[in-house]
Amino acid sequence: xAIRVNGRQLRCKVVAEGGNLGFTQLGxxxxxxxxxxxxxxxxxxxxxxxxxxxxxxDHEVNIKILLGAVMLAGELDQExxxxxxxxxxxxxxxxxxxxxxxxxxxxxxxxxxxxxRLGSFTHFIQTLESQGLLDRAIEFLPSDAELAERKxxxxxxxxxxxxxxxxxxxxxxxxxxxxxxxxxxxxxxKELQRYFPKPLQEKYADYxxxxxxxxxxxxxxVTNSLVNRMGSTFLLRMQEDTGETPAQVAKAxxxxxxxxxxxxxxxxxxxxxxxxxxxxxxxxxxxxxxxxRNLTRWMIALPGLLPDIARMVERYQEPFSVLLQxxxxxxxxxxxxRFEAEFRRLxxxxxxxxxxxxxxxxxxxxxxxxIIELSLREGQSVKSVAQAHFALSDALHINWLMAGIEALxxxxxxxxxxxxxxxxxxxxQQRQLVSTVLGSLQAGKEPSEWVEAWLSxxxxxxxxxxxxxxxxxxxxxxxxxxxxxxxxxxxxxASTGTR
Length: 499
Prior knowledge:
Helix 5 runs parallel beside helix 11 (214-230). The mean pLDDT is 89. The longest helix has 27 residues, at 413-439. The chain has 25 helices and no strands. It is mostly helical.
């Protein structure tokens, strides 16, 4: 007590707890809230700062179980086993550090979105409480009244509070995936090999398949990938919005991650450490987060259960890459100008040409899966379908409508779901309209000419709708009813086909 210091008295910018309970949780939160005023105050929890120790122990135990089976089979003796363990020390250290880097990065991304998505975090806390999985008082998480006060002040949750939610979510998700067929999926089983150092991957991959903790290792790896990249509220929100199981959400997320080759993007963002401001990296990570969320939702909405992951990745990965590279040439003139301006801005900040290209393309990639599906169904090139898609979007002001939907205020779970349904319906009408245009194409004409020909038809409903949108664009703001009317008008046009 003689040397006790309160959180608000600290003048350092960062605290790392090398021991357990160097701070009380209330002290951490008090110190972190000081940081919200711009003074500093970056702190997690002792469990986060010390998690490398636990991770190292897990690797040690699992490696020894694996090598125990190899020794039992007579393929390795004690002396060579010990030498092999020693030789892998540095690589195990690297694997552990990467795990912890990802976890800390996840908390930074969650913090950057915390104020904006405070309602989602509040609902997550309430849901865990209602299921008896969390005691808010024990964990010193804010009450509903305190959360409402923070929302009014434009504040979110602090890093210590987010660290608690991340930990609880990983426990919940791990148990859900362990009880599912996720550990049996051939594609996700690759996570088992990634867990072990390379010398073991190369020599003893067959023994990994019979490891007695195989399912737990795979479930842990998939949990970490999902939660570290998408945050603590993602899986719950996806389940509630779509009605799907945790396993289906995890599989859809994996298909999207592999199709857009997100691991390569994340590696490029990580390589920018200490060369660009952290805000640039967070901007890139959150941009990818939004795209993955939207495409995962699209993937889950496909009829029936998802086929095996490998087959879906094969279906979408190459067309996605083709679309990404051909995108500037498929955009309308005004959209191309936006793309090029953003590419120059990001390049000037220090991003590689590849990463800057992807980030500049982000606003146009939410429709990527629709474009790919139409390309496969109609037998047209990805670029041609993309040209028709973006030309029609421009002519019917669909981008403006989508921006209006994204800007809708959300005060709770049901409003969030309503906004999501409206977004899904707009994309469905756009998909149907593009399909109609593709069905009316004439040989020898450019996709933009297909769109012009379709729009120039003597169609009273189309003209009325365009006039309505012109009136709406003069409004100072758009609300749920107005946007619902606009989306329904597009549905009426889509339903008339080529009339």
